[in-house]
Amino acid sequence: RYATRIDEDCKKQDPETYKQISEELAAQKAELMNARKKKIAMLAEQFKNDPAKIALLNKAARDLAMLDE
Fold it and tell me: CA dist 60 to 5, 30, 33, 40, Å?
């Protein structure tokens, strides 16, 4: 509730700055998600013959996909 309230107040106070900050945060989040996905893919290729590590990477990829939604 607290975060929602701050978000609403910022939007009312300065809509242009709010929009700019929101876009920057979204871009940073997308960049971080892409970096993590690339890292998981690289590790999956590296450990493709190790079922235990692949299972862990698969779980990490599913968790990351849930966060990305």
Answer: 32, 17, 12, 8
pLDDT tens for each residue of the chain, 69 residues long = 888 898 888 888 888 888 899 899 999 999 999 999 999 999 999 999 999 999 999 999 999 999 877
Residue carrying structure tokens 């599913």: 62
The model's pTM is 0.71
DSSP per-residue letters across 32-43? HHHHHHHHHHHH
* 52 to 19, 41, 48, 49: CA distances (angstroms): 44, 15, 10, 9
